[in-house]
């Protein structure tokens, strides 16, 4: 039982490490393509359009770019403060004057500069009164206590639902990147999942090495806690144990392709698309199961030894009986 479980743990460990490689490649690609900032900009544009803030020309798009500049994410409270800051901006583009008009209609009698000052003062005062509350709750409560509440209530009404849709679209595109890089890694090795599991089933050294690596990985609370340096070190250990073999040249890669099972490579590519969090959680569950199985087997072994000792003792006592 433990032998098969160790082989499964080793198999899961390798897939986790390769999935982390896929995750790093996905993050690099997402940063290069600026997926987060692009989706944030589109989401803010949708917020403005739903508010009927259709500024002259490309004003809404320009405002969305200004708000999203240098950001990958934004909260409702940050959006309100950023709008108040931008409304103070003096520029030839009419969007800033139109934004001031929109804010004046929602907070009559107050200039954006005064609204921002009141908001920040109220936030500071309330944070002193209730230091136990989260920052987001403090800021939202401060907005409810100041004249900016009209602007906040209008923006908050459409912000959450719009950003949820934006997050779903970003997740969908990220999964596509994970699938692309998962297939690429499986083809580059190539990763024959059937052969990988058989190697763990046959080799005691491979299982021992993988178990050591699995226990080291499981110390982290999540797969995200593993740094690129950790990935390289773990990958080097897998290569040194000949568990994962990276072709050194195109010729070696072609030679390996002649030996691998195409179905095993396809299965490996499919398994890598499940993502590192899935394999990390599975690894933790398998390690818990192994600990429970090992404890039960140790208990059963102790009971068998005790029963054997009693049997031997009874036999010896019978031999010493009165003839």
Report on the structure:
The protein is mostly helical and 323 residues long. The chain folds into two domains: 2-31 and 191-311, no CATH class; 34-173, no CATH class. It has helices at residues 2-33, 35-50, 59-68, 76-87, 95-106, 112-129, 135-145, 149-188, 193-202, 204-217, 228-240, 250-257, 262-272, 276-319. α1 (2-33) packs across α11 (228-240). It is elongated and about 95 Å long. The mean pLDDT is 84.
User: What sequence of helices (H) and strands (E) makes up the elements?
Assistant: HHHHHHHHHHHHHH
Helix content: over 70%
Number of strands: 0
What percentage of the residues does DSSP assign to strands (E)?
A: under 5%
Q: How does the overall form come out from the CA principal axes? A: elongated
Radius of gyration: 31 Å
CA(first)-CA(last) distance? 48 Å
Mean residue pLDDT:
84
Main beta sheet: none
Low-confidence stretches: none
**Whole-number total of structural domains:** 2
Number of helices: 14
- Structural class determined from secondary elements: mainly alpha
In brief, what are we looking at here?
The protein is mainly α. Helix content is 78%, strand content 0%.
Key descriptive features of the protein:
323 residues; elongated
Break the fold down into its secondary structure elements and pairings.
Blueprint: H1 2-33, H2 35-50, H3 59-68, H4 76-87, H5 95-106, H6 112-129, H7 135-145, H8 149-188, H9 193-202, H10 204-217, H11 228-240, H12 250-257, H13 262-272, H14 276-319
